[in-house]
Amino acid sequence: MDEEHDTSYKQNDPAPRYNGRDAAIYLAHLHGAKVLLGTATPSLESYHNARSGKYGLVEMPERFGGIQMPEIVVVDARQELKERKMQSHFTSVLLESLKEALAKGEQAILFQNRRGYSPTLRCNTCGWHSECINCDVSLTYHKWRNNLQCHYCGYQQELNKTCPACGSHELNLQGFGTEKIEDELKIYLPDASIGRMDYDAVRTKDAHARIINDFEERRMEVLVGTQMVTKGLDFENVSVVGVISADQLLQFPDFRSGERGFQLITQVAGRAGRRGKRGKVIVQAMNPAHPVIREVIDSDFQAFYEREIMERKAFEYPPFTRLINITLKHKKPDVLNRGAKIFAQVLRAKLGKRMLGPTVPPVSRVREYYLLDIMIKMERNPAIWKATKELVWEATRVMQQEEGFSTVRVNVDVDPG
Ligand SMILES: [Zn+2]
Ligand SMILES: [Zn+2]
Asked: Which ligand has its closest atom nearest to the C-alpha of 121?
């Protein structure tokens, strides 16, 4: 399995919720076969298994084909902002590097992990912001369609001209996605041909192949993109890679946020460099002292692993425990709240402190359904594991048999990723 750490192996929605890597390992186990996991940025789980002797470990300290590791430069965006050196979302260091590369006929990739133009439309007068009618998320402005879109349910509406709450005309687009980066880069690099690769850009037939082909054939000089540009693309002529906002990559509300950040920045950095010439990676950050950023610059997976695994142990997270995330859903919030109480009672009686919640998740409503989360954190013990599985079924049965709660939906995600 190549890129064993990759989050796209994990299916979160709809059921079956499973990790393709773990399924492969289990299948191999049933047949007495071996699995080879490959990656430059191992998942904490796999590396822990290798260190504890459960897996064998083969290391390749040099890049394939003898290509040098790129030079990684972190730029303090806050300092540049203070000194008024920033142009829109670009530091002077990044813009200079881009100009240098283009002058030499080389290419560049810019990474921004958010699509659309701006993620929020806000009123300066009263603080109102555009929200989806079906979900608890703000609507993203897309310039090419000149409308607002929900990235959870696909709902779309026209851009408001006045604030629906107070009538003010002072509406402001806040934040930035790939579309805005592409758009504004054209101001500073007027002669460059700039393209974009994200979910919106590859929606039409053959678009993905066409973008890659244009870039490969050098008809496009700068490629702006989301995670899509980090995956297994190898372009000979790319000498500069820019990470627009490292901070955003380290702010997932999840215990894996450090791991994800390390993997993403390292993977995107790996796109820079070619035979005989060292590539350059510019990482823009408001907080350049973040430990994960330091570890990425030093290409020091060991240091990252040692620090991260200590935290996982201290706070009892995987790989030291296993998690089950249970999401309860209903269109009526009061039905959901009362149903979740019944459900949680059954679990708590047996699990005690192993059960956390119910809590309101960061996005509390999706496609008209209100959501509540319950987390089970348990020891890695097959007997407890089996009993807990049965307990979750029992809690579901008890709640749904109760009058009025048969329509509360229960989604169970084992080893959430
Ligand atoms: Zn307003
Ligand atoms: Zn929505």
From this structure: 1
Of 71, 112, 94, which Cα lies nearest the Cα of 297?
71
Residue 358 CA to ligand 2 centre (angstroms)? 23
- Residue 9 C-alpha to ligand 2 middle, in angstroms? 25
Q: Output the CA 152–ligand 2 centroid distance in Å.
A: 5
pLDDT at residue 232, rounded to an integer: 61
- Closest-lying ligand to the alpha carbon of 367? 2
Return d(Cα 203, Cα 129) in angstroms, integer: 28
Quote the pTM value: 0.89
> Is residue 112 a contact partner of residue 177, using CB atoms and an 8 Å limit?
yes
Cα of 113 vs centre of ligand 1, distance in Å, is 29
Beta bridge partners of 414: 324
Cis amide bond preceding 61, omega within 30: no
Interval between CA 5 and ligand 2 midpoint (Å): 29
Ligand nearest to the CA of 124: 1
Tell whether 325 and 396 lie within a shared domain.
yes
132 Cα to the center of ligand 2, angstroms: 5
Answer whether 133's CB lies under 8 Å from 155's CB: yes
Report mean pLDDT in 10-residue bins for the chain, 417 residues: 93 92 96 95 95 93 74 95 95 97 95 94 94 95 94 93 94 94 96 95 92 94 92 82 93 87 90 80 94 92 96 94 96 97 96 94 95 95 92 97 96 92
Ligand 1 center to residue 163 CA distance, Å? 5
> What integer pLDDT is reported at residue 13 of this predicted model?
86
Please give the Cα distance from 293 to 115 (Å, whole number): 23
Q: What CATH number has the domain bearing residue 195?
A: 3.40.50.300
* Domain count of the fold of the chain: 3
| CA 12 to ligand 2 centroid distance, Å | 18
Q: How much distance in Å is there from the Cα of 119 to the middle of ligand 2?
A: 13
Residue range of the domain that includes 285: 66-116+176-311
Beta 10-11 vs 156-158: how paired, if at all? unpaired
Shared-domain flag, residues 201 and 233:
yes
d(CA 13, CA 413): 9
Nearest ligand atom owner, CA of 133: 2
Say if 102 falls within a structural domain: yes
Question: How many Cβ atoms from other residues are within 10 Å of residue 264's Cβ?
Answer: 21
